[in-house]
What we know:
alpha+beta; SH3 type barrels; 7-stranded antiparallel β-sheet; elongated
Amino acid sequence: MDTINEPDHPTDYRIAKLMDGSLLMGTISIDDNHMRIENPLELTTIPRMTEFGLKEDTTLSQWIPFTSDKEFVITKDKVVVISLATVELAHFYEVVLSKLQNDTPRISPALTPADIDKILDIAEEMDNMEYMRDDEPYDVIGGYKIDSKKLH
């Protein structure tokens, strides 16, 4: 695969708009039938209301989460347009990508048989607790039953 206009600078990233409306950013190269994108991040816009009116925030997130793949191949017929990213967006991309790559996944340790037994014991205690019966009046304050809600 040949790289589109070989990047002259490390921040020479591209944005690709796909047929489904997704905006992907990364290092892009193409051949006759496919587009290859390395470290793709999806550009998403989130509207939010401020005291001055509607404002749109833009963020980058993993395009396909829960995978360690760094490179994806997309057929060219799914690509609408490819464009060069601005320098500011390229720097933001590098910051987000660095954070995603350096973030270690927080994996909880597996539960031990003792942990499972403790959880089951707590659940059993909760099942055995006495709860308010359906026929019990809800208008009880400090042990006194309230017969009427009239104020005068």
